[in-house]
Amino acid sequence: MQQTESIAATAAVGIVGGGPVGLVLALLLDRSGVPCVLFNTEPETRWHPKGSSESARSMELFRQLGLAERIRALGLPGDHPTDVAYFTRFNAHELARLAMPSRAEVLRRRQEVPKTDQVPEPIHRANQMHVDRLLAEHAATRRHIIMRFGWQVDGFAQDDGGVTVSAANADTGATQRWRVRYLVGCDGGRSFVRRSLGLRFRGEAALEDRYFGGRMFSTYIRSPALYRDVLAPRRAWQYWAVNPQLRATIISVNGSDEFLFRTKAAAPNQPADDAAVIGALHCCAGAAPPIEILGHEPWTAGTALVAEKFADARVLLAGDAVHLFTPTGGFGMHTGLEDAANLAWKLAACVQGWGGAALLASYEVERLPIALRNTAAARQLSININEVEAPPEIELTSPAGEAARRQASAKLATYAEQFASLGVQLGARYDHSPIIATDSAPPSDDVVIYRPSSIPGGRAPHAWLDDGRRDGSSLHDRFGAGLTLLRLGPRPPETGGLVAAARARGIPLSVVDIGDRDIRDLYGCDLALIRPDHHVAWRGNATPLDVPALLARVVGAS
Questions:
Q1: How far apart are CA 399 and CA 490, in angstroms?
Q2: Hey, what domains does the chain have and what are their CATH numbers?
Q3: d(CA 41, CA 193)
Q4: Residue 242 above 50 pLDDT?
């Protein structure tokens, strides 16, 4: 019998979708003391390998939440290389190897970088299913987060005062009604929230190519023999097979017997065939080790889709609900987590009363251009994969074979930066945002190269404050949950008027004095106002003449 609860529970923010974007949004709101309820249709996080990279910016957000070291402990063993290696077959010719450090090496190198190094949390390789599980377990312990895993949102209606949400428990049939001030759809590419708003995607739906394009399968496999007999002597994180028969990749999930195998579907609308997938893996391996298939998941290579709008009044969207990527580059989760960081502080400001009427409108203004930029970058990486030639002679032990392999190797060696793409990871800028006090031309945009700058709109430049490289050692560790005013150099200007004006408006403002001359030179200014998402809102060498106008602008009240 269906059980019905007619009581209307309340929270400041409702979140639909318990993937990484929804969970990080909830945790950032919790950090600001904002109550939220998180609905997820499945009773647990999805246990199937998906994305395998946590970008430098994602790791910074995890550091902000106190989770970076716990997440860095997930994934491959500490000494396992994170190389990307290309072979004709896994037991045959190695075409190229893009060397990347193990987790232990990453941490060792971090101890040796100069104090103005810009990557306090280097990219990490751990499968998203492990990260999601850790985030969910942590969220369940937080006092401001109400977890509703196993509850499906089946309707919502908004009015001038908030949003009424209805949800049902799939196991018991119980229903609940919730009243929230804002609702955020983080519910994936088939988002119920987005479809209910009537919003459509625009862009490129697929990249049709004989190798890495169109409908693909991600297959979760277990095979101790594959690792022991074929891969172990040539350890890597990601292995590519490039030969005349096929082009496919296998990603190590745990550094021993679990892998994610990506192959092109034989037909557009057919489910995965176990025998065909095993045959493809044997073709890649050049051997026939026993394979246990744990599950398949379809996806589309070359997708670059962005929703036409990111919000409708009190209902907003983030993550895959507003942008869909091909997984090359690992940009999907990265972009979604940046959405969450951008949106969390704006929601908190509006709930707590210090955000202006125009603040939430800036979310789409700032994030939509970044979604277009990043989906295009990921699509280009898919195109690059297909450009490597694999003629029949590439597998021959002959002069012609050696020449074909040299040609392929030269092309593949140019792909190293695509696996770093620091410009994508750290280079998002909001220069045309109405809540940014832009004062000069920004640095040129580059998806590979990150150029630190205190010009308002970009990520606040990073610096280490001591040699420990511990929690509290990073300049970013000093930024608060509200706005942060950096006073830089040995003799910073007086800022009492700005602090008093912020207090009068109810704006949470932390003041951080950094006397180090090198850090002042890095910023090129005496004062910098940093938003809670670590983007620079304003800078100067003296308190502005019209402090109330500046504060009104950066909180969307002008």
A1: 66
A2: 4-75+125-202+306-378 (3.50.50.60), 77-124+208-301+388-427 (3.30.9.10), 429-554 (3.40.30.120)
A3: 13
A4: yes
